[in-house]
């Protein structure tokens, strides 16, 4: 597998665009991120961290405005990294100094599967509700095990 890293005309790597998403992966908007660090791991959760500012300068009017996505960037929402995939936001670290910023750290989407607790799910236990017993019983009938 070859990882494609986007590059500019001088062959320098370009940072990927980051999109804030709802928990169902519906895109809300592009995040004005900087200090982006993506650590791709093949045997564990990949990690993403970046910083966003509360205030931004509107290029059309020249006014300083509050970014509409700043307050929406909170834990358990998702971030789509263009070309890499989805990440789950952990609790952001907010800095309330002169220029209010949020430092967001995220784990890759497979992190979600580790946070689910499966109830009434039995496999390879030999019990009546176990997946393999249910499968063989449906295929060959209940008398198969007697």
Describe the structure.
The chain is mainly beta and 146 residues long. Strands 1, 2, 3, 4, 7, 8, 9 and 10 form an 8-stranded antiparallel sheet that branches. The longest helix has 10 residues, at 131-140. A hairpin with a 5-residue loop joins strand 1 and strand 2 (27-30). The chain contains 1 helix and 10 strands, in the order ββββββββββα. Helices cover 7% and strands 32% of the residues.
Considering the chains and any ligands shown, give keywords for the structure.
single chain; 146 residues; mainly beta; eight-stranded antiparallel beta sheet; two-stranded antiparallel sheet; 1 helix; 10 strands
Count of β-strands: 10
Which regions have little confidence, pLDDT < 50, spanning 5+ residues?
A: none
- How many angstroms does the end-to-end distance come to? 48 Å
Question: Can you give the helix content as a percent range?
Answer: under 10%
Structural class: mainly beta
Quaternary structure annotation:
single chain
Order of helices and strands: EEEEEEEEEEH
Average pLDDT value?
A: 84
Shape: elongated
Number of helices: 1
Instruction: Specify Rg, calculated over alpha carbons.
Output: 23 Å
Strand content: 25-35%
Largest sheet: 8 strands, antiparallel
